[in-house]
UniProtKB/TrEMBL annotation:
Transmembrane annotation, as ranges: 20-41, 62-85, 97-122, 134-157, 184-206, 227-247, 287-307, 319-340, 360-390
Family: Belongs to the cytochrome ubiquinol oxidase subunit 1 family.
UniProt-listed InterPro entries: Cyt-d_ubiquinol_oxidase_su_1
Pfam families membership: Cyt_bd_oxida_I
PANTHER family with a match to the protein in the record: CYTOCHROME BD UBIQUINOL OXIDASE SUBUNIT 1, CYTOCHROME D UBIQUINOL OXIDASE
Membrane topology: Multi-pass membrane protein
Compartments in which it is found: Cell membrane
Molecular function as annotated in GO: electron transfer activity; heme binding; metal ion binding; oxidoreductase activity, acting on diphenols and related substances as donors, oxygen as acceptor
EC number: 1.10.3.-
Organism of provenance: Actinomadura luteofluorescens
Assigned keywords, A-Z: Cell membrane, Electron transport, Heme, Iron, Membrane, Metal-binding, Oxidoreductase, Transmembrane, Transmembrane helix, Transport
Origin organism lineage: Bacteria, Bacillati, Actinomycetota, Actinomycetes, Streptosporangiales
GO BP annotations listed: aerobic electron transport chain
GO cellular component: cytochrome complex; plasma membrane
Protein name per UniProt: Cytochrome d ubiquinol oxidase subunit I
Amino acid sequence: MERVLMGADPLVLARVQFALTAGTHFLFVALTLGLATLVALTQTRAVVSGSAVHARMVRFWGQLYVINYAVGIVTGLVMEFQFGLNWSGLSRVTGNVFGAPLALETIVAFFVESTFLGLWIFGWDRLNRWVHLALIWVVTLTAYLSAYFVLVANGWLQRPVGFVMVDGVARLDDVGALLANPTALLAFFHVLFGGLLTAGFFMAGVSGFHLLRRTSEVEFFRRSMRIGLLTVMVSVMPVVVFGGMQFQYAQPTKTGGHEAAAAVADFTARFGPDDYRAPVLAGVGEAVMVTVWLLMLLVAAVALVKFPFGRWLVRGRVFHVLMIAAVPLPYVAMLAGWVFREVGRQPWMVYGVLKTRDALSPGVGSGAITVSFVAFSVLFAVLFGVNAWLLARFARRGPEGAGLGASPPAEPAAPLMSPTF
């Protein structure tokens, strides 16, 4: 295996490495975005109504959210190293534009989000309940702000706007065009509802697992099941609407037809011969994405029928199995959509501006990339496995095993000692 990798094309290795790490990281992001929103809404209900069951739900689902967030942060930090390791050409030519939204994401969004999340975790029962509620909403909103800035950067790769080339280097000259790029805005709402869809299926699947086992926490998981199903039903259509709206801004070489032929001719005249049409893998990703979305729509339709009948949510064992089996569906759809969006842009790193091969770090051979490829792949596999294990372990424990916000056990008082002489 190592010998095969050592002889592989460095460009192919670098692309596959980034595909594996970016794709894995995005799986964490989607659940984090959606689950943060559901936890914030549930805590709002608990604070406003004083509902004890909703307060317990916040602790249980909030604990799963924190686990996913913590491991996901590590994958995001590690993934960033690849820009310097393998893609210095991207920073050299377009760093002044591409790096701006990423810097905003780190400084404005990520630090605020992580700081307020720490206050939310350790401020339980120490802060006023309204202050504590405000903290989780700040965490949620900054999480979406962070996602927006990342998608601004990615949207610029798809449809570069608001810049000029000066001596072969991209210079930002229109911040408004960069931030309001339709490929970023539509992708943001697509991801927003995709995250909610992921969290909805996750919450319904975990609830179905406990109801299938005839848990004693029937009311807790009945309510959780209803929240999860309602989220799925609300999110499933906006996901495809905002996804479909992006096609009007898709690259001509990805959509095909006369526009694709004209774009290929233009690129050939300007940059020389190359395979400018979207690879077959992009079409496969699109087909898988649409197919899985149809499956999710079918599950949502079943949920819509079952939703008014509370007894079916509790007693329907086949329905519980269906919801457990449906948990991976949004993940598969997201990965397939990501493949369609990113692979379909090839051979461009920045569409019509910088080719992927020119973005590769100069002098990087297959040996160096093989070492980083193996190291990154093993690390991300371990992180993904640890996250899945932790989520399964704490989800299986149920609300009684939720340690988030629990007061530490009181230490026994020291015995009074008689003075000795």
